[in-house]
Specification:
This protein is of the alpha+beta class. It has one domain. Helices cover 33% and strands 19% of the residues. It is built from seven helices and six strands. The protein has a six-stranded antiparallel beta sheet. The protein is globular and about 45 Å long.
Length: 205
């Protein structure tokens, strides 16, 4: 499979997808602040590295089937898709992932890099990444430096039907904040960061 043609290289299409992304996420925000617009709630957390696995793809592909999405948008927000990635390589670090692709193909896309620049694959060079439902029923925000990702669902989604898919994800709790704490001095999350996480993400399953 030719993976480069999976990446967005048209500015108009990029802007259309950006508008959709900005409807779900507060794109200029970051954890522990709120990163989702108010229509999205029922937050669940997982480690960042999980998003780079075949198991993650299997889960969100099952979710996309439930929400009748033919594809999932994967978009890197940091490094900047325009001022860095498009400028350097002529296409964006954004991909429309058809739900028909296999877990192995998902991993191949993550590891695909511009010619002569293997350090610029999404697997290696991504600090803030989102996965979005084009039907705008759910979104996932991931920050490498915080070691977590968080999924949120539109108010129209029913949690009972999703529990089997996300039974290994966690609502905000001390285990989640311990993951984040690994990135701080003495591996301890500052109290103000922890308090803000609980304040912003306390709703869950």
């Amino acid at each position: 499979m030719e993976y480069k043609n999976k990446f967005i290289d048209n500015m108009r299409e990029f802007e259309n997808l950006k508008n959709l992304i900005n409807t779900i996420f507060i794109s200029n925000s970051s954890l522990p602040n709120q990163v989702f617009h108010k229509e999205f709630t029922n937050y669940l957390f997982k480690e960042f590295d999980f998003t780079m696995t075949d198991e993650f793809w299997s889960e969100i592909r099952e979710l996309a089937n439930k929400t009748n999405d033919d594809f999932i948008i994967m978009a890197v927000l940091d490094p900047d898709p325009i001022t860095y990635y498009f400028k350097e390589f002529g296409y964006f670090n954004w991909v429309k992932l058809e739900i028909s692709i296999t877990p192995d193909q998902y991993l191949d896309i993550l590891n695909f890099s511009p010619e002569d620049s293997p350090a610029d694959s999404i697997f290696v060079n991504s600090y803030t990444v989102v996965w979005a439902s084009p039907s705008m029923k759910w979104g996932i925000w991931a920050e490498r430096e915080k070691e977590v990702c968080v999924i949120a669902f539109s108010e129209k989604m029913y949690k009972d039907s999703l529990n089997p898919i996300f039974n290994n994800w966690r609502p905000i709790d001390n285990e989640v904040t311990d993951w984040i704490g690994l990135n701080y001095k003495n591996f301890t999350i500052p109290k103000d960061v922890k308090d803000k996480l609980f304040l912003n993400y306390k709703s869950g399953y």
